[in-house]
Amino acid sequence: MQKKKVDIAVISDTHLGTYGCHARELLLYLKSIEPGILILNGDIIDGWNFSKSYFPKEHFAVVKKLMKFLALGTKVYYITGNHDEFLRRFSGFSLGNFHLIDKLKLQIDGKQTLFFHGDVFDTSITGAKWLAKIGGSSYDWLIRINKLVNNVLKWLGKPPMSLSKKVKDSVKRAVKFVSDFEQAAADFAIDNGYDYVVCGHIHQPQMRRITSKTAQINYLNSGDWIENLSALEFYRGEWHLYHFPQENNNPDVDMQYRQWLDELTSYYSSVADNNLINSNLALLYEDIVCSTSNR
Question: How far apart are CA 227 and CA 14, in angstroms?
Answer without folding.
Answer: 10
